[in-house]
From TrEMBL:
Top-level taxon of origin: Archaea
Protein name (database record): DUF7314 domain-containing protein
UniProt key word Membrane: yes
The entry's keywords: Membrane, Transmembrane, Transmembrane helix
Residues covered by the DUF7314 domain: 1-89
Residues annotated as transmembrane: 9-26, 60-79
InterPro entries per UniProt: DUF7314 (IPR055738)
Native organism: Halobellus limi
Amino acid sequence: MADEFVKGLGIFTGAGLAWMVLAGWYRTPSFESQEQLVSPVSLSDSATMFDTLGVLLMDMFFWFAIIGALTFWVGIPVIRQAREALEERAQ
């Protein structure tokens, strides 16, 4: 059970760090404002393919952190307990 927790924690911290780096680049208009990391993305007309890819990766890292951690912290333990309960009931 501890290995699922560590896997979920690794996914959460790794993807969360990547999201925070990209959000710092694309969602922070200025460091004096109160809207750091949460302001809407504002790409200019001169946005390159890498800017678009960075915004796409930022959203992917966010959802990977949430869904990946919940999979290892909630999903897999629930499936294991349900499987054990079904095996007990079958005997």
